[in-house]
UniProtKB/TrEMBL annotation:
<keyword id="KW-0732">Signal</keyword>
<keyword id="KW-0645">Protease</keyword>
<dbReference type="GO" id="GO:0006508">
    <property type="term" value="P:proteolysis"/>
</dbReference>
<keyword id="KW-0964">Secreted</keyword>
<feature type="domain" description="Peptidase M4">
    <location>
        <begin position="7"/>
        <end position="151"/>
    </location>
</feature>
<keyword id="KW-0479">Metal-binding</keyword>
<keyword id="KW-0482">Metalloprotease</keyword>
<keyword id="KW-0378">Hydrolase</keyword>
<comment type="function">
    <text>Extracellular zinc metalloprotease.</text>
</comment>
<protein>
    <recommendedName>
        <fullName>Neutral metalloproteinase</fullName>
        <ecNumber>3.4.24.-</ecNumber>
    </recommendedName>
</protein>
<dbReference type="GO" id="GO:0005576">
    <property type="term" value="C:extracellular region"/>
</dbReference>
<feature type="active site">
    <location>
        <position position="144"/>
    </location>
</feature>
<feature type="domain" description="Peptidase M4 C-terminal">
    <location>
        <begin position="154"/>
        <end position="316"/>
    </location>
</feature>
<feature type="active site" description="Proton donor">
    <location>
        <position position="232"/>
    </location>
</feature>
<dbReference type="GO" id="GO:0004222">
    <property type="term" value="F:metalloendopeptidase activity"/>
</dbReference>
<keyword id="KW-0862">Zinc</keyword>
<keyword id="KW-0106">Calcium</keyword>
Amino acid sequence: ISGTVVTGSGTGVLGDSKTFKTFSTADGYYMFDGTRGNGIYTYDGRNQTRIPGSLWLDADNRFNTSYDRAAVDAHTYAAWTYDYFRNVHNRNSYDNAGAELVSTVHYGRSYNNAGWTGSQMIYGDGDGYNFRAFSGSLDVVAHELTHAVTDFSADLIYQNESGAINESMSDIFGTLTEYHFNNNPDWLMGEDIYTPGTPGDALRSMADPTLAGDPDHYSKRYTGTQDNGGVHINSGIGNKMAYLLANGGTHYGVKVTGIGNDKVGKVMYRTLTQYLTPTSNYSHFRASAVRAATDLYGASSAEVASVKQAFSAVGVY
Ligand SMILES: O=C(NO)[C@]12CC[C@H](CC1)C2
Ligand SMILES: [Ca+2]
Ligand SMILES: [Ca+2]
Ligand SMILES: [Zn+2]
């Protein structure tokens, strides 16, 4: 259909105001952003599980009803995450060829999860107690889109150690995106949508994975079969490593000199897109990160030394 790119405005899940690109047509205003890659499309799942559902259409380009909120954030945060990978890592969408970013909100009924289906993002509304609408958290949106980046690069198999690294990469870039936009940034995951009645808690902490019962050292890794072999559990090892690499600290007696968020982003992005493979384990993750840091900063650089320290601090060699 023919139309023009315009700017819409609305209210997000947390009640905050934001603007985003929409498409003005004879039918009304669609949540289609034609300014990024091959487009960003946000759909209404209408509390069913048929995807993608119907492209979000609004009569007046103002998105301020409670039902609109999940769509406002899915659409806006998809654009912000697109901008993060484009402007910071020179990657044009998850396939580096401008792939359309498709999101469905109001997926299912009180669905307490979000995900990357292999071709689009889906966001549940949450049950209102354990979670609220999942697109309301920038780190979650960037977490999901990073799964797509991973699938189109290292393609880490989603089980056991490769799956834990897959998950950790999503938490790492979810957090780095949150810092990039200075969106109440922290090293917590999902704090904006987790237990709306309880302030200050989160789904996971990268600074201290043990708060969620996850390991912060390789010697404490989960070796069972739950959670695809602990992909959301052993991600704590990579998360703690990244936290230490960015911020520094002493962990189990090992001192790490921090290199800052931006350099962690560069090292992790190069590790993910140039060196990791589908079957990489944590030991190969260390070797890959050392190679990436060596490429970027030189073999005798402080950055390479810090990468080695960070992996040693979580018991990975
Ligand atoms: O880790 C995840 N998926 O692999 C989460 C769990 C809560 C947020 C939505 C989906 C992140
Ligand atoms: Ca409206
Ligand atoms: Ca966060
Ligand atoms: Zn994930």
